[in-house]
Design goal:
Elements lengths: L1 H34 L6 H23 L7 H7 L2 H28 L7 H28 L1
Helix pairs in contact: 1-2, 1-3, 1-5, 2-5, 4-5
Length: about 140
């Protein structure tokens, strides 16, 4: 049992760094989207597929805590009340900032033409990255 607790503690300490790394990776991938918008070529469809898989994986990580390939007992130890509260606060912030980004883009589009894919990517980027960084900060602060 102590081995499971040690594993859960070690993974909990790594989780905040992983969230920041994934947030940065997501932003870098978004930069490639803005520099080379997708079209109907096969390479663009593969890029779009990769983006969709990454976005779904990040959403799953944010909502479940990740570490799906670890034993269920370890995941249960990692999912204490504090981790759930941090996740809820992070998801709440991500939602609010995504909504504010949508509102801002709706207003801006009156004055400047903004394509739908660009607006969607901006809203999702702001929502994902803010939630991930907030969760990482809360976890890091709690673990000392």
């Amino acid at each position: 049992m102590s081995d499971l607790i040690e594993t859960a503690d070690r993974l909990s300490r790594r989780r905040s760094g992983m969230m920041i790394s994934f947030a940065l990776f997501f932003l870098i991938q978004q930069a490639t989207f803005f520099s080379n918008p997708p079209d109907r070529r096969v390479v663009s469809l593969v890029h779009l597929g990769g983006w969709a898989v990454l976005a779904l994986m990040l959403l799953a990580m944010l909502t479940t805590g990740g570490f799906w390939f670890k034993p269920k007992a370890v995941r249960a130890l990692m999912e204490d009340d504090m981790a759930r509260a941090h996740r809820a606060e992070a998801l709440s912030l991500g939602f609010v900032l995504a909504m504010l980004a949508g509102i801002a883009l709706f207003i801006v589009q009156v004055f400047v033409s903004i394509g739908t894919p660009v607006a969607i990517h901006l809203i999702l980027s702001i929502g994902f990255v803010s939630a991930m960084i907030r969760f990482a900060v809360l976890e890091r602060r709690a673990l000392g």
